[in-house]
Amino acid sequence: MKKVYSTTFVLLLIVFGCKLPSALTGGGAGGSGKGTATGGSDPKADIVEASRKFIALPHFSAKMEGTGQTEIKSQVDFVAPDRFHIKYLGGTGAGMEIIYIGTDSYMKTGDKWSKMPSSGVSIPNLRDSFTEAGLKTLTDVKFDGEDTVDGKPAMAYSYKNVTPVGGYPFTSKIWIGQQSGIPLKIYVEYSNGMLKNMTVNYDTESPVSIEAPIK
Predict the structure, then answer these.
(1) Cys-Cys link to 210, which of 7, 19, 83, 123 (CB 3.0-4.6 A)?
(2) Do 96 and 106 meet the contact criterion of CB atoms below 8 Å apart?
(3) How many CB atoms lie within 10 A of CB 200?
């Protein structure tokens, strides 16, 4: 069980952008719906602006596939400000689901949901954890050209950074929608730690609803 919760925390760190500036998380007021990529003239500014747009989203879903000490194949749904639904599709905890709503948490094993004992503490507010301070460790930002993600035109960028927990260095590539200016995909490679690589595909358009599965 401890391993599952450790994996859960790692998933949340990855899905929220691994310390990209402005937190690449949901919540807050709506932002501009148009892309503002500079076409590579200022790649760091493009990533910062994409982060700010992502912060403005009220919800999103993310599908992840990763390899390392354990295989990770999961989906994380998020509804601002504090609702998460994690589905383990493969690897550690395959078939399990966890829902967090504020300080309440629920786990599904098999066909049964159970409410977990409350610690009185909600999942750390990742929006507050990843601030502009992330810019201090964001290096070697490059524009890699135009591409597509699931048929959507995108601008691709690469950069280096370190994880907010443990300070593990990693390299990453991010695809930002040309029309929306919002991240569509992130690929991360780690030089050490429990993960070797992770691919995250974001769905910011489909509706997301997260409710308590049991009373």
Answers:
(1) 83
(2) no
(3) 26
Which amino acid makes up residue 208?
A: V
- Among 109, 123, 161, 116, smallest CA distance to 140 is for 161
Degrees, nearest 5: CA angle 136-184-19: 20
Strands (E), the chain: 59-68, 72-79, 83-91, 97-101, 104-109, 112-115, 139-149, 152-162, 169-177, 183-190, 195-203
Question: Which pLDDT belongs to residue 6?
Answer: 55
The CATH code of the domain at 2-27+34-203 is: 2.50.20.20
Q: Residue 124 gets which letter from DSSP?
A: P
Nearest-angstrom CA–CA distance, 148 and 16: 21
| Series of mean pLDDT values for 10-residue runs along the chain (215 residues) | 55 56 34 52 86 84 87 89 90 86 91 87 52 66 95 94 73 92 91 83 95 92
Measured CA to CA, the distance from residue 16 to residue 50 in angstroms comes to 13
Per domain, the residue ranges of the chain are 2-27+34-203
Q: How would you list the strands of the sheet with 104-109, edge to edge?
A: 112-115, 104-109, 97-101, 83-91, 72-79, 59-68, 195-203, 183-190, 169-177, 152-162, 139-149
